[in-house]
């Protein structure tokens, strides 16, 4: 099992892959205070995005030659020195986690980032922040259940409202059971 996350220690279990977007944030937070440093920063960001594009291509069509070339290219990008001391330091952290960042070369089926997963919980977190918490354990379970159902319906391109109406009326022919739809969707992805 592969766990894809930012570099937070609590996720360092099983086989850990590092989210490329989280890893790159240390570089994106920098700002050059003169033209030379701004150019160096832009060059590094461009190299990283081009590297990301190559990783996406590798995922679609893995090949041993590409794998070796991408390994070498990551060494070049993350160890290259510039005129910008902070920019030299930021990639060192990424390079130390190279194996986790490039796990996709061994396991092309894993995603390169976990933004989709983070988006999945964002709505729930916003609602919790706005309304505080629920008053009871059954309330929390109900909130979590309906939030999960809503997100699942959205991912399957089903109207959540239509789903609820069909379940309330007992009309299972208009909207099939979600496990059945999930199974169909998964089979379509594999095919």
Automatic annotation (TrEMBL):
Domain of life according to the entry: Bacteria
Name of the protein: Transposase IS66 central domain-containing protein
All copies of domain Transposase IS66 central, residue ranges: 15-139
Any single Pfam family the record assigns to this protein: DDE_Tnp_IS66
InterPro entries found in the cross-reference section: Transposase-related, Transposase_IS66_central
């Amino acid at each position: 099992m592969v766990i894809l996350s930012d570099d937070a220690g609590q996720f360092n279990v099983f086989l850990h892959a590092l989210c490329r977007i989280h890893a790159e944030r240390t570089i994106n937070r920098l700002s050059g205070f003169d033209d030379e440093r701004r150019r160096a920063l832009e060059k590094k960001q461009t190299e990283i995005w081009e590297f990301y594009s190559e990783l996406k291509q590798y995922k679609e069509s893995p090949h041993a030659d590409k794998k070796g070339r991408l390994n070498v290219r990551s060494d070049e990008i993350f160890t290259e020195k510039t005129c910008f001391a902070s920019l030299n330091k930021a990639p060192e952290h990424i390079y130390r986690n190279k194996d986790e960042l490039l796990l996709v070369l061994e396991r092309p089926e894993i995603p390169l980032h976990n933004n989709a997963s983070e988006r999945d919980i964002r709505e729930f977190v916003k609602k919790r922040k706005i309304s505080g918490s629920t008053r009871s354990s059954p309330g929390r379970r109900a909130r979590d259940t309906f939030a999960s159902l809503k997100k699942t319906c959205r991912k399957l391109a089903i109207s959540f409202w239509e789903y609820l109406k069909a379940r309330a009326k007992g009309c299972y022919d208009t909207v099939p059971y979600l496990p059945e739809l999930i199974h169909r969707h998964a089979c379509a992805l594999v095919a």
